[in-house]
Amino acid sequence: MTLLNLPDYSLENYTLASLPRLAELRTLSLNSKPAICIERARYITRFLRKHDKPDDAPEVRQARAVHYFLRHKSVQFFDKNLLAGSTTSKPLGAPLFPEFFALYLWPELDSVSTREKNPMTLTTAEADELNFEIFPFWMDRNVIELARTRFGNPRCLQLFENLSFFLAGKAGCISHAVPLYKPMLEQGLEGLIQIAQTRKNQLAADNNPETKQQQDFYAAIQIALEGIIIYAEHLAEEAENLAEISDQPEIKNHFEMIAKVCRHVPAKPARSFREAVNAIWICQVGIHAENINMAMSPGRLDQILWPYYQQDIAKGELTVAEAIEILGCLWLKLSDNVTMVPEASEEMFGGAGTVPAVTLGGVDKEGRDCVNDLTYIMLRVTELLKTRDPNVNARYHYEVNSHQYCRRVSDVIINTRAVPAFFNDVKNIEALMGQGETLEHARDYAIIGCVELASSGRDYPASSSIMLNLVACMEMAMYQGKRPITEEEQIGPVTASPSQISSFEGFWEIFKNQTRWLIDQAVQLNEMFGTIHQQMMPSPLLSAFFEGPMEKGRDLIQGGAVYNSSGATHIGFANVVDSLNAIEEVVFNEKKYTLEELFTAVRNNFSGSDGEKMRVYLQNRAPKYGTEHPIARKNARNLTRFLFQTYQSYTNYRGGKYRPAYWTMTNHAGLGAISSALPDGRRANELLASGITPVSGAAPELTTCLNAVAELGGTEIPGCWALNMKYTPEEDTDAMGKRFAQTVEAYFRSGGQQVQFNLMTYEMLLDAKKHPEKYPELMVRVSGYSAYFKHLNEHMKDELIHRTQYNLTNGHAVDFPE
Amino acid sequence: MIELIQEQVYQGLWRQLNNCIESEVAEEFLQTLLTLMKIMFVIQPDYRRNIVNFNGRYQFASKDGEVTVAAIFGKNRMKVVEGTIKDPNITVTFRSGKALLNFLLSPKQDILISMLNREIQTNGNLNYISKFGYMSKRLLQLMPRL
Question: What is the pTM (predicted TM-score) of this model?
Fold first, then answer.
C-alpha cells in the first residue's frame, strides 16, 4: 500500500451529516460548561498525608502518588465517544494541581461558578473539601513556596511576582512535551515495564549511589505505568457493567467493544487502528495524572498511527469513514479539559485551551515526503470539527511535499478561518540542527503547544520556562534601570542618562546591558525552580514515553532526555524594534528631537499638543519593522541575534541550552494594558504586537511584511515564532486557495518558520465583540493557539480586531473602518 | 444588658464595614475587617473552622506609613496587633484602604490588576493572602441585614 490512496483528498463526501456520532459529540463538546475537577488534588493530597514515604527517592514518591491517583480515579463514560478514558471526572474539566497555582482559586471558591468571565462549576461540597482539606496542606508546599524557603525569597522571585518583568513557567508547569508513543504501541506498557525490570536487574549487583538512583528510577517507571494499566482495567470493568445492564443492542455492542479494547491496550501491543488510538488516549490521560494539562502534545499522529491504519484498511477491517469517526473522537477527547484560570488571571491568560498540539505532514527521518492518507483524513477531521483543541499544525517542506498538500492545508485554513498553522520544514530543521540535533532527529520534529519545536520524544524542552517582557528592558534602558510602573525603585543596573548618550550605538549597548541583566534574573529563577522540580515533581511516567531516560536510567527532570533545552519567549518584540528604530532614525540620524526630549515626552505619555505632534511623527515617519527600511531590518536582526547569543551562553540544570522564541499567548494584550508609552509612538496602556508580528498598521504591504519577518528565520530562533496574519475572506475560495498557498510557499522560501491566519474582517470581529451571541463558535488564532473569540478578555478581543487585515488579491493592508 | 451592648457594637461594626464597601473612601476598612473577623471567629463555630490548626502571620501596612497592623493566627484564635511583627508569612502594602478593599473583597477579583498597578504590593507567601481573601469574603456572607 502506498502512502496516498484516497480518490479525493478533500474527503468532501464525509460530512457531519454522514457522521452523526461526531455531529452529536461536537455539539455536546461545544455546549459543555467547564467544571473544576478536584479528583487529582484530592488523591495526591491524601496519598501525601497518609502513604508517602519521605525517605524514598523523589521519582519513587512521585510514581507512587500518581499510581495511587490512577488506582482511585473515577471511571466516566459521558457520551457516545468511541474512546474510553477522560482526563477529569467532568465532561469538560479543569483539573487542579495544588503543586502549582491551584491555591489562587481559594478566594473564588464561593464565586467561581457564577463569575462573569469563563465561570467554572464547583459544588459546595467540593469547595469545602478544597478549603478545609486540600488547600491547607499545600500552603507552604507548592513549587513557588518551596523555592522561596530554600533560596531565601530571592530578588529574581520578587521580580517574577511583580508579573511585569518576566513570567517563570516552572511555577505553573513544565509539561510542554511530545511523548513517543511508538514503543508503547508496539510493546504495550507491559513490555515497557519489562524493559525497566531487565535494566534494574542488570544493575542489581552494583552498589554505587548512582546505580541506586537508576534502580529507583526504573522502579518508579514500573509503578507509574502499572497505574495506567489499572486505570485501563477499571475502564474495561465499567464498560462491561454498562454493556451488561443495557438492553439496547447498539449500546451493549458499543460498551462491549470499549471493554474489549481496554482489556488489551495499553497493557499489550495494539492490534488495530482503534486500539492504537485508544491506547494513545489512555496514556495521555495517564500523563495528565502526573503532569499538568498544559501543551502535552501527542505529536505526529499521522505517522505514528499510519501502520495501524494501513494494516486495517488492507485487511478490510476499517473504512475511511470509521477512521474519520475514531479520529474525530480523539480530537474531542483531546478537548475534554481546560486549565483552571483564576478570574484575576483572565486578563492575561483568558480563553486559552490546554493546547495539545497535533503535527501533520512534512518529511520523515530520511527526508522523504511522508504525507499520507491519514494526513488528509486528519485535515478533514479538523475541518469538520472546528474545535479549539487540539492545536493542529501542518508541516510543509517546499522541496519535498506536494503542492497539492500545501493547497489542501490552505483550503482547510480558509474553510475553518483559523486552523491549522503552517510550519516550514526547511527552516525548522535547520533551527534544530543548530541546537546540536542530528539531521534524523531534527527531521522528526513535532510542534509543542503553541509553536515550539521538539524532536518527537527525544527533546524535553521546557519551552515555556521564561516569558520575558522586552518592554521592561526598553524602559530600564530609557530610565537608568527604573520603570514607570515601579516608580523610584532601582530595578536594573544604573546606566547612563539620556544627556550622557551621544549615539545610537551607545543606547543599544545600554539596552543590551539592561536586557542581559533581566535575562540573568529570569534564568536564575528558572534554575531555582528546576532544582525544586527535581525534588518535588519528577516525571517517571512521562519519562517512560521518551527516548533517553530508559537508556540512561535517569528521569527527564534530571536530564534523561536526548535533548534538554529550556525555552524563553518574548513579549513586545515588534514594539521594541520600532522603538529602537525611532531612537536611531529620529534622534540620532535626523536629529529632529534630542533623546531627552523624546524620553520626557514618552514618560508623559505624549501629553500636550507638542507631545501629540511628536507621537504622530514617530508613528508615521520612523522606520517600522515589517517594511524594507534598512534600519528596521538591521535592528530586528540585531535584536534576535543578541537574544540568541545571550540565551545560548547559559547551560540549564539538565545540561541543555536556553532557546529563544517569539510567541506571546495573550500576554501581549495583558502586559500592553499596564505598560507605559514607548518611543515608537505607542501610547501608554495600548496593546503590544503579538508574537513576532509587526505592530498593527505598521506594515502596509503584505509581501514586504512577510519578507521582513522571514529573513529572521533559522538558527537564531530555535524555539520558533508565531506570525499572525489576517486576511480578508474572499467569495471565490478556489482562487483564494491558490493565492494563499503560493503566498505561504514564497514566505517559506524566504525563510519564514511559521505562520498562522485569521480569515476575518475588522467589521466581523467588531460585530462579534458587540454581539457574541451571533458568533457562538467563532474560533480565532491568538498567538500560537486557537481560542473561541467569546472566551477572550476585552484586551485580547481588541488586539484581534486591530490586527492588520490584508487583502490577498492586491496585497495591501485594508483600512480600518471609521 | 451586656448582650444588648454587644449586639449594638456588632451592628455598628457591620455598618462601618458596609459603609467602607459602598463608599469611595475606605480608610477604616482594614481595622473594621480585622475586628469583625476576630469577633466572628469567636462566636461562629462554622466560621471558626477556617482557622482550626491554622498558623499564619500577616503584616498589613499602608504606603504612607499611617497604618501598620498585623493579624496573627494560632491556637485556633486570631490576634490583631498594632505595629510590625517578626517573620510574617506575607506582608501586604497598600496605597489606600479602597485599594485593599478591592484587593480582598471585590466581587470581580482585582488581585492581578491591583498588583500590576502597584495599588497593592506583597512580599511573601501569596497562598496566605488567598486564604485571607477567602475568609474575608466568607465574613461578608455573615453580614446581617442592616
Answer: 0.96
